[in-house]
Amino acid sequence: MTKIIYTTVDEAPQLAAASLLPIIKRFLSEAGLEVETRDISLAGRIIAAFPDHLTDAQRQSDALAELGELVKTADANVIKLPNISASVPQLTAAIAELQGQGYALPDYPEAPQTDDEKAVRAKYDAIKGSAVNPVLREGNSDRRAPAAVKAFAKANPHRMGKWVSDSKTRVATMGEDDFRSNEASVTLADAATLRIEHVAGDTVTVMKDGLDMPAGTIVDSTFMSVKALKAFYNKTIEDVAKEGTLYSLHMKATMMKVSDPIIFGHCVRQYLAPVFAKHGDLFDANGITPNGGLGTLLDKIADLPNGAEIAAEIDAVMADRPPLYMVNSDKGITNLHVPSDVIIDASMPAVIRAGGKGWGPDGEEADTTCVIPDSSYAGVYAESIDYFKETGALDPATAGTVQNVGLMAQKAEEYGSHPTTFEVPAAGEMRVMNGDTVLMSHAVEAGDIWRMASTRKAPIMNWIELAIERQAAENCRAIFWLDETRAHDAELLNYVRPALAEKGLTDTFEVMAPTPATRASCEEIREGRTTIAITGNVLRDYLTDLFPILEVGTSAKMLSVVKLMQGGGLFETGAGGSAPKHVQQLMEENHLRWDSLGEFCALGESLRFAGGAKAKVMGDAVDTATVKLLAEGKSPGRKVGQDDNRASHAHFALYWAEALANQTDDAELATAFEPVAKALADGIDAILAEIKAGAGQPVDLGGYYHGDADKTAAVMRPSATLNAIIG
Ligand SMILES: NC(=O)C1=CN([C@@H]2O[C@H](COP(=O)(O)OP(=O)(O)OC[C@H]3O[C@@H](n4cnc5c(N)ncnc54)[C@H](OP(=O)(O)O)[C@@H]3O)[C@@H](O)[C@H]2O)C=CC1
Ligand SMILES: O=C(O)CCC(=O)C(=O)O
Ligand SMILES: [Mg+2]
Questions:
Q1: Where does Mg(2+) bind (predicted)?
Q2: For atom 3 of ligand 2, which residue has the closest CA?
């Protein structure tokens, strides 16, 4: 029987855990099962990186490194909650909060000069962005809506915006001089140690060396032309002004932590082009960059002697530009304020679910032009939008479902590329070398964004097998979303086709480029059918928000299993993130609308995976409880005054205890849970009243990134009745 590890994370899922985990621990103790926590929160990772700056009492071990080893063993049984992938503004805010709590951490060096500063910066950069998931994901991804969730969504369809055929909403993408169009790809026949070089005239600079690749690895390299990017932004700004839509930029600055903040920064720069033309040198001299977003830019400008004047010029330019899609129009937070505020996997589905609408500066809904610079995957959103314009919104009461099998293990594809991504220092050539042989090379200009990505053979073969297994289980249409005209995909297909042929399954699977696959999948679910999208890593991420958000309203209710390649299990909770908006609501009015359904799904799976008869009984009872929770409508409501996350946990505890008391597979457990079930049933009204007593009041958690455990427990466990039963 394996021990279950429950991760300590950030924001809403961590607040939910403060309420749910004590219940889980209490219940599992009856079955002799252990649950341990490991802190992979942003604050925890910062603390672990700087032991020398901290007191003994403050120090924390590097739990991420420990888990990174654990997931390479058959013993791993990890329940992984979503964590913050920090943009620079979030990272600096977390550091400041910890410093305020007495942690003598170094500041984040914006422009490191000394060796010391460079070392500090390197440590912080390793914490930044998506630094957790790629380490833990030693397996491929199986994400789908559980049958009970689908059935519930059909019976209780969520609200969908209306799509009209003359909607002006569209996707704008480069289509040339971008990552998609410049891609080169090779499959290594033998193991190799690769080197990345920049060549300018006679000068060869080694950008990265010692990149060990096993035989069979697919290696890609590509770049985005900064000149083309700027021209593209200028054109979109002009077009959007004519179209009368909102301007919205959709990036993944968290997961693509090197390339996408730069691409984001160029958008801020072009949007404010007259300001940068006038003050660019001053900004450079003061280390002011737009890559952390307009918010940070404005803060830094405020510190300049002529700050007020420049701020007024920025306002004037913005008034002259097409209106921006807003993150929070009440607070004046625009799309360009913080690179991690608008994250494409969640933001594009939200626009599509709303019938192609975003929020404008006036607080009103409007059509929006969705700017997605690189064209590799933009077609998925463009095609979805076209499809819904033609056919009207999807009806969640009758829609089928698109499941996903995603290639993800061992930092596959673009999502593993940040250590090998560079902003090109000078015009010349970027090349990938294998000894003296040039594997791939690109002519580049200064500022171009060049990257290398790799995908190992073992994960690819494992992914194909997982696809075969899932298709056999569902017996439905299954499509490999691969584009034979794209360099990387063509190499992947050299693995996929023979593997399918060898098993006589060539006709069981289809291969389609992402754009037609999007249409085919939309048509399938429109007819109420199930289909499986077998995709690379980026589309795994995008599609497991897109389809769930359209079909069941949210990706929070997804079953999200990572079958680790060495035999262990990683159970992710849902397919979404850490919902910062939910924390804000809790702090302002003591209502947490986070839905822990993803945690319930993961817990059931993890328990069955743990092995042993008792664990199976516990896990099956979790599923029974989850189905009942949905059927009884006990999921959290969005508004203060409704039952919230804590109330849903109380119901979950009640139904879990009932399921355990009523099952007949394990008499001992039934006996143990009978009084618990009775106490919860008798106490539920009091429990709900105790939880609701604090509704509407602001609460103090003692911190945002590094809250106080006691204060958080007081907020998240307000029911004395429930606490007495849980112990
Ligand atoms: N696996 C991981 O570790 C992941 C981490 N992230 C990280 O999370 C942060 C926020 O990312 P963002 O793109 O804003 O996406 P989120 O998924 O956190 O939020 C988008 C919206 O989805 C809804 N939502 C998400 N989860 C739930 C839930 N359990 N219950 C109810 N509603 C939910 C909320 O909608 P509403 O406001 O309408 O209630 C929320 O505002 C970033 O730091 C990002 O990097 C993101 C994805 C995965
Ligand atoms: O790791 C991250 O930053 C986000 C991951 C994500 O969005 C996903 O797995 O769906
Ligand atoms: Mg995602």
A1: 345, 541, 545
A2: 130
For residue 440, the model assigns a pLDDT of 98
State whether residue 77 is helix, strand or coil.
strand
**Arithmetic mean of pLDDT, 366-375:** 98
User: Ligand 1 pocket, 129 CB below 6 A?
Assistant: no
Burial of 139 (0-12, 13-18, 19+ CB in 10 A): buried
Amino acid letter for position 143: R
The DSSP bridge partners found for residue 197 are: 206, 431
Nearest ligand to residue 42 Cα: 1
Question: From the alpha carbon of 255, which atom of ligand 2 is closest?
Answer: 3
Q: Tell me the CA–centroid distance for residue 188 and ligand 1, in Å.
A: 38
For 499-553, the pLDDT digits (tens) are: 999 999 999 999 999 999 999 999 999 999 999 999 999 999 999 999 999 999 9
Q: Which of 220, 226, 219, 218 is nearest to 178 (CA)?
A: 226
Q: pLDDT digits over 489-513, tens only?
A: 999 999 999 999 999 999 999 999 9
| CB distance 77 to ligand 2 below 6 Å | no
Q: Has residue 590 got a pLDDT over 80? A: yes
**Contacts with 354 (C-beta within 8 Å, 6 or more apart), sequence order:** 161, 365
H-helix or E-strand containing 622? helix 613-631
Residue closest via CA to ligand 2's atom 7 equals 541
Distance CA 69, CA 63 (A): 10
* Contact 87 CB / ligand 1 (< 6 Å): no
Strands in 396-496 per DSSP E: 401-406, 421-423, 428-434, 437-444, 449-455, 477-481
Quote the DSSP letter at residue 197: E
Which residues, 6+ apart, have CB-to-CB distance to 108 below 8 Å? 88, 91, 92, 95, 120, 121, 124
Mean of pLDDT values over 632-654:
97
Chain centroid, CA 636 distance in Å: 22
Q: Among residues 315, 252, 354, 13, which one has the least CA distance to residue 324? A: 315
- Whether 570 is in the pocket of ligand 1, judged by its Cβ within 6 Å, is no
181 within ligand 1 shell (Cβ under 6 A): no
Nearest residue by C-alpha to atom 2 in ligand 2: 130
C-alpha span between 268 and 252 (Å, rounded): 15
How far is residue 79's CA from residue 221's CA, in Å, rounded to a whole number? 34
| pLDDT surpasses 90 at 2 | no
Q: What is the pLDDT of residues 281-327, one digit of tens each?
A: 999 999 999 999 999 999 999 999 999 999 999 999 999 999 999 99
| 493 marked as binding residue | no
State how far the Cα of 159 lies from the Cα of 180, in Å rounded to an integer: 35
What ligand is nearest to the CA atom of residue 81?
1
